[in-house]
Amino acid sequence: MIKKVIGIVIVLGAFAGGLVWLLNNEPAGGSEGFSEGAEVRAVTTSTMVTDMVKAVGGERVSVIGLMGPNVDPHSFQVTSAASAALKKADMVFYSGLHLEGKMQEILEKRAADKKDTFAVTDGIPKEMLLKPAEEFVGYYDPHVWGNPELWAYCLNVVVATLSEQDPDGAEGYKKRAEIYRQELLELHAWTKKRMTEVPQGQRVLVTSHDAFFYLGNAYGFEVRGLQGVSTNSEAGLKDRADLVRFIQQRQLKMIFPESSVNAKGIQAVADEAKVEVSEDKLFSDAMGKPGDVVERNGESYDRGTYIGMMKHNVNAIVEGLK
Ligand SMILES: [Zn+2]
Prior knowledge:
single chain; two-stranded parallel sheet; Rossmann fold; 11 helices; alpha/beta; 2 domains
C-alpha cells in the first residue's frame, strides 16, 4: 500500500512538474496578428530567426515569430494560432537543416507550392556545416547559430528574398543587414577572446543536448550532450552512464542545463557524477524573454536578443569552467 501511495505521489509530482514546464514554455506567436501598413507580412520559426528577420526588415516588415522564448524548435508543432498566421503570411523564414523536425514537412510543402518559404541556413556554404557522428545520419547539425560568424551567412538569404518581394525596400534591407552582420562579427571576436580565459584542460562543455558543436568547434571546446542532436530522441541508460563516467574522468567542475530542455535529465547526471549544475541555464535553441536585460561584468544586454543570449551563454560558460 505504502509503495502504491509513493508511486502515485511520484507520478503526480512528475505530472505537476511537466505542467509547470509547459506553462513556462508556452509558444508566444500567432495571436497578435500582423501590424497594418507593413509592406511585407513575414512568419518566422525559432526566436533566433525572428531576431534576424526583424533586424533586417525594420519597419517595412511585420514579423510574427511562431516559437516563443524557451520553446524547443525540435518538438514544436503548429498550433491553430500558428496556422492562422501562416495563412496570412507573404513570406515564411525558417532555420532549416531539420531543426524544425515536426514542422519540416509543412515548410517543405509550402516552399514547393508557393515559393515564398525560405530556410535561412541555405546561406551557409555546405563545407562549413558539421555532420553529427551517429544519429541524424545524412543530415547536417542544425545548431549553426552557436557560431555568430556562420550565422551571419544567413543574412544573405533574408536580404535577397526580402528584396525580391519588396524591391523598394532593398536598399534599407541591405543597410540594416550590414549593421547586424558587423554586430555578429564583433560578437564572434569578443567570444573568441573571452573563451581563452578558460584554461586549456578545462574547456569541456556538458549540456542537456547536442546543441553546442558549432560553438565548441569555433572556440576550441570539447562538447558532450546528454541527449543527441534532436531532443526528440531520449537519452538511454547507457548514454547516461557513459556521460557520468566522462564527467568523473575529466574531473569537470560544472555542467549546464538548457532553457528549452527540461533540466531533470542533466540534474540526474550531475547527482550521479557529483558535479555542480550551473545556475545559469544556457540558451541553446531559443532566446530568453524579450526585455530580459541583465548586467554582468559592467556590461548590460538583453537576453531576449540573439546577441544578448550569446553573451549570457559565453559569460556563464567562462565563469563556470575557469
Ligand atoms: Zn537542438
